[in-house]
Amino acid sequence: MTVRILDTTLRDGEQTPGVSLSVEQKLMIAEALDKMGVDIIEAGTAIASEGEFQAIRVISEAGLKAEICSFGRIKFEDIDAAADAGADSIFMVAPSSDIHISSKFPGKTRDEIVEMSVKAIEYAKERGLIVEFGGEDASRADFEFLIKLYDSAVEANADRLTFTDTVGVFTPEKAFETMQRLRERYSIPVAFHGHDDFGLATANTVFAVKGGADEIHVAVNGLGERAGNAALEEVVMALEFLYGVKTKINKQMIYPASQLIEKLSRVKVPPNKPIVGDNAFTHESGIHTSALLKNSQTYEPISPEIIGRKRLIVLGKHAGRASVEMIMKELGYKATPEQMKEILSRIKEVGDRGKRVTDADIRTIIETVLQIRKERKVELLDLSIVSGVNLMPTASIKLKINGKEVIEAGVGTGPVDAAINAIKKAIKDFADIELVGYHVDAITGGTDALVDVIVQLKKEDKVVTARGARTDIVMASIEAFIEGLNMLID
Ligand SMILES: CC(=O)SCCNC(=O)CCNC(=O)[C@H](O)C(C)(C)COP(=O)(O)OP(=O)(O)OC[C@H]1O[C@@H](n2cnc3c(N)ncnc32)[C@H](O)[C@@H]1OP(=O)(O)O
Ligand SMILES: CC(=O)C(=O)O
């Protein structure tokens, strides 16, 4: 069995508070979704704004394989907007629970909602759209009324039906049973749209498929209203690997799409998020690492390569000998068994003090124990910063890079940003480095506090962490950034 995927990252996903995407960004995401193999791209709500209308138009004209869908209400203007934008289909919803009907349409009866829905479906069909019709808040609707609404939609020639768990109150058992009943009753495809208010969206969506859903609505990284929609990556991987249900998704494209969407939506993926989180294939514990190095299946349910990722072994207070040996080899250092023991003990000491052990900390510990210092490719020679009222924070910087002096200037939203921008400009010919994480802690109290900055830098698919600790936040940030750079440029 192959289940069809409607991806709603660009519609419900964009309804995530604070997220808004430009036409160009939406097109980039739509192309990534298409490459990943989703069947239907719900590209937005054509009636919502000029930008939304244009985005749907541009995506519809992009020659993608996927069906392009616009969301809409049971209103002729929404249908016109979807059709005029060139969408192939409309996901059109009518209120179906009494709470939605009475609050949104005071004075209107259930029968009047059915009548409005039928007229809207007929009109959408006249406008040439494929109609996917949903009862909104279906999981809180009277099931008998829902059936009446769906029966009328089918009579009006709707092409597909959707059951929406709008406020995420469904359970896997109910999803299974409901979809089974809908599947038995209707000959047209039935879909499930789930939300994660109780953390059950993935389970509900998987059980909806077990119950017979032909199509499911998901969003990459679980974006969506409130707690979000069912996450594409979780649902697809659970269906394929745990339930033996096929999708058309090219799993190699899941991680690149997730990263693109994280970047453009500016919604950070939590590190412990299944499949796409930073820690999903990262191991620190010595017992795990030692076993993983012998057989990766010991502590990994699936290989990271399946979804275009790599395994990462990190050192921290839970590390053991095997992890240290591996990292030493990776960094190109040689040590005696005693030196290894000392390195491990110093790493654990940092962790025992409650501190995160960064990659740069590890290198410093190794070099201290081995009494060597590898040459740094990037060194700070001079820095000056101007910041104040009515002027743009500006930094000028002199670096020695591979033995050559480079002078650059940068502006930014504050002195740290300006200094980092100046460094980025200075190194642009040497490496394409991205700052993917920046965290500041004041270790002591007061304005003279010791500030601990941890940066996370990325070059291609390699990510390193580095620390700077100073009473001057700009210097702590730059120290951390340059330490990280040196690890990546090595
Ligand atoms: C669960 C979901 O995710 S639903 C999808 C949510 N998505 C959006 O809201 C998309 C972005 N929305 C928008 O840009 C705007 O809300 C628009 C353009 C759709 C409508 O804007 P406005 O006309 O200013 O209306 P407003 O947003 O204040 O209220 C929504 C209206 O839609 C009506 N409505 C809500 N659901 C439906 C429906 N399924 N069918 C018909 N009308 C509906 C409401 O009753 C309300 O009507 P009223 O203005 O007569 O009271
Ligand atoms: C329509 C929709 O997004 C919902 O019911 O959740």
| Low-pLDDT segments | none
Mind telling me which CATH architecture of the largest domain this is? Answer: Alpha-Beta Barrel
Helix content: 40-55%
> Structural class, from secondary structure content?
alpha/beta
Bound molecules: acetyl coenzyme *A, pyruvic acid
What value does the Rg take, in angstroms? 27 Å
Structural domains: how many: 3
Mean pLDDT: 94
> Would you state the CATH class of the largest domain?
Alpha Beta
Number of strands: 16
Number of helices: 16
Instruction: Using the coordinates shown, work out and report the CATH topology of the largest domain.
Output: TIM Barrel
CATH superfamily of the largest domain: Aldolase class I
**Rough shape?**
elongated
Distance between the termini: 49 Å
As a percent range, the share of strand residues is: 15-25%
Write out the strand line-up for the largest beta sheet, numbering strands in chain order.
Answer: 1-2-3-4-5-6-7-8
Largest sheet: 8 strands, parallel, barrel
Summarize this, please?
By secondary structure, the chain is of the alpha/beta class.
How would you sum up this structure, described in words?
The chain is an alpha/beta fold and 490 residues long. Helix content is 40%, strand content 22%. It has helices at 23-36, 50-60, 76-84, 98-104, 110-126, 143-155, 172-185, 201-211, 232-242, 254-265, 286-294, 321-331, 337-352, 359-370, 415-427, 473-489, and strands at 4-7, 40-44, 67-73, 89-95, 130-136, 160-165, 190-194, 215-218, 282-283, 312-313, 378-388, 391-401, 404-411, 434-442, 451-459, 462-470. The strands form 4 sheets. Strands 1-2-3-4-5-6-7-8 form an 8-stranded parallel β-barrel, surrounded by 8 helices. Strands 11-12-13 form a 3-stranded antiparallel sheet. The chain has a 3-stranded antiparallel sheet with strand order 14-15-16. Helix 8 packs across helix 9. The chain is elongated. It starts with a strand and ends with a helix. The mean pLDDT is 94. The chain binds acetyl coenzyme *A (ACO) and pyruvic acid. Pyruvic acid binds at residues 12, 93, 134, 136, 164, 166, 193, 195.
